[in-house]
Amino acid sequence: MSANLSDAVVELPPSRPHDPIAAPSRSASAIEQAGSEEACPLALRGVAKRWRRDLPLVLDGLDLTLQPRSKTWIGGRNGVGKTTLLRIAAGLIDTEAGRVEVWGVSARENRARYQQLVSFLPAGDRGLYARLTVRRQLDFSARLALLERSHRRRAIEQALDEFDLRELADHRVDRMSMGQRQRLRLAMTFLPEPEIVLLDEPLTSLDGEGAAILERSIERLIARDGALLWCSPSGEHLEMSFDRRWRIERGRLEPA
Amino acid sequence: MSRALTAWSAFAMIMRRDLHVYLSYRTRLVSQVLTAIFSLTLFYYVSRLVRLSEFRSPAGYFSFVVIGIALVSVMYSCFLVPELVRQELVAGTFDRLLLSPFGAVRSVVAMTLFPLVLSFALAAITIGLGCAIFGMRLHWSTVPVAIPVMALALLAFLPLGLLFAALAIVVKQGAVGTSWVIAAMALTSGVYFPLAVLPQWMQTIGGLQPFTPATSVLRHLLVDSPIGGSVSSALLKLVGFAVVLLPASIALLSAAIRVGQRRGTIIEY
């Protein structure tokens, strides 16, 4: 049985105190901009995607809605469409049908605003400049995120501390271990303090300490009213509690 | 105002990133300077053999060709951009540019600038070495005027890099036909020899690209070479190339990215 939109709406967890370090929530202003109180952090409605005309649909009218302060896990076999779903939600590729919005903003209509609200960690170890230092890499991310100067400096220092990268700040990426690189990729994902974080197999190469760092970052995201979407083939080994668990089957979501 | 400042900060950061990566290869500058010295030496001795009515002496041809080879390095730098874009696609960093609020189009425009600025700096070094080692004479009174002309030439050349970057995004290859295009442009822009020795149809083709007016006006300003036509008409041509091609190339780059996103090929490399 595939999940429809109302099935996929998660119940709000009890509100939690805000992290004093975190930036003030942007949700209110985002709702104001969207001009709709029904807007929610992430809404995928009737999303369809196929890679070639002669191939079946990878996603077939998929619906998914995330609410503030929610953690959602999506699993499924290899090649079932998890990464495609994340890429669509991130604004990287277009759908053939359906609509994707973050707080009522679609990537097609206002790409810059959409990308300010969403941050995506792709699977694997790509997306880093091998010959730049950790600090420069973070600075690069912060500037591309169009953070204000004062906020940028604070965000970089905070990321160095939160992801245990302070000692590696002046190390070049090509001289770091895979786990350290993954911590940097995560730091770059969380650095602009987005509303929505999309993670594709984020535990890759992380040791126990790295996984704990990731968990704390997710808690901070939730504390500032953000929402998380985590995709990985299997969720059995995940110790983190999710508000909803889904599995992609035949292009749609089914409860896992 | 602050939005413009943050956008400028991102733009400048991409140039700084390229500078840091360039400087991280410590032997690269030395290698480029040595290449320039070898080219200068080669053409110094070739110039001894040149007997053309256009040049009063071998030194006249040497000055002529040094400006030409300096601008060829600028030409090469334009066609470096598609390879840089391909590297970003392979490394997965293009996704980061695309998914940033700054955006992929502005990022690629920024990526075009460092190689161009560097190539102009290397061109200046080449000319300086020509003077220091081989006794080439510059027309110092008009050298300062050449600087804004170089900036204008940069704006006229930049669209070529953007057009080939758009092509690289579509075909996922950095060097599709670029060696042919560079050879054709070098041949028809009068880099190595005066345009007058070419057949009329090749001279006509030469007039359709920005390197021809840039080469002739910079030669005129730097070594007092005679210019076919007037300086103002050459400058107008450069302005025309920049005004027409810059928005067109940005629109094509934007379209290439949009098509890649629609088809899903933007993630391929």
Could you provide a short overview of the structure?
The complex is a heterodimer of chains A (256) and B (269). Chain A has 256 residues and is α/β, with parallel strands linked by helices.
How are the SSEs placed, and which strands pair?
The complex is a heterodimer of chains A (256) and B (269).
Chain A: H1 5-8, H2 27-34, E1 42-49, E2 59-66, E3 70-75, H3 82-90, E4 97-101, H4 111-117, E5 118-121, H5 134-144, H6 149-162, H7 178-190, E6 196-200, H8 208-223, E7 227-231, E8 244-249, E9 252-255
Parallel strand pairs in A: 3-7, 3-8, 5-6, 6-7
Antiparallel strand pairs in A: 1-2, 1-4, 8-9
Helix pairs in contact in A: 5-6, 7-8
Chain B: H1 2-24, H2 28-47, H3 58-78, H4 81-91, H5 93-98, H6 104-134, H7 143-171, H8 178-188, H9 200-206, H10 211-223, H11 231-263
Could you explain the architecture of this structure?
The complex is a heterodimer of chains A (256) and B (269). In chain A, helix 5 (134-144) packs across helix 6 (149-162) and helix 7 (178-190) runs parallel beside helix 8. Chain A contains eight helices and nine strands. The model of chain A is unreliable at 1-37 (pLDDT under 50). Chain A has 256 residues and is α/β, with parallel strands linked by helices. In chain A, the strands form two sheets. Chain A has a six-stranded mixed β-sheet with strand order 5-6-7-3-8-9, with helices on both faces. Chain B is mainly alpha-helical and 269 residues long. Chain B contains eleven helices and no strands. Chain B has helices at 2-24, 28-47, 58-78, 81-91, 93-98, 104-134, 143-171, 178-188, 200-206, 211-223, 231-263. In chain B, helix 7 packs antiparallel against helix 10. Chain B is globular, with a radius of gyration of 19 Å. Chain A binds chain B through residues 49, 51, 87, 90-94, 111-113, 115-116, 118-120, 122, 124, 126-132, 136, 139-141, 143-149, 172, 188, and chain B through 2-3, 5-7, 9-10, 13-14, 17, 20-21, 24-25, 91-93, 95-103, 107, 261-262, 264, 266-267.
